[in-house]
Amino acid sequence: MKEIYLGTDSGATTSKTCGVFADGTPISLKLAQSSTNSQLGTTTVIEGWIEGIDKFLNANGLLWDQVRGVGLAIPGPYQRYGVLDRSANLPAAFAGWDFHADYSQALAKRAALLCLDAPQRCLRVTVEGHATPLVLPLKGMYPEQLALHDFLKRLQDEALTIARHRQLLWMQSAEAA
Asked: Most CB contacts within 10 A, which of 20, 27, 128, 138?
């Protein structure tokens, strides 16, 4: 599974998302566009940025679990890092908005974090900030008889299965909407 880095260029009305593989190769020359809808407030803007990432990932057959970094270009000026000041092309209410904190929080909810809990012999899956132990009922999995590399490979395969299942459920929910 190739690691990827994504970037979003946010304007007052439209945001564009694209990305590269870890080696710097472009994933695609086509940008995913989403509505910024700044007139509807900061929550809607964040949702638009996440929607742009979702569109880009889906258009290119990629998963959230491959994302290793996300960048954002948004017009200033800034009060300080990640906090907007009054901008001519954004609503006055955006002055003082800590978009860095809000966007980071939204991104954390999308990512699924997997952590091996060896003493409990389980995989701890964290989705939307909630950790859940997941016992791995893999056929033929006897950790004491596997080399560490083989054991970790099986865990990685299970994590990919979970990620694909999540993406399938998300796609089905989008089709139903």
From this structure: 27
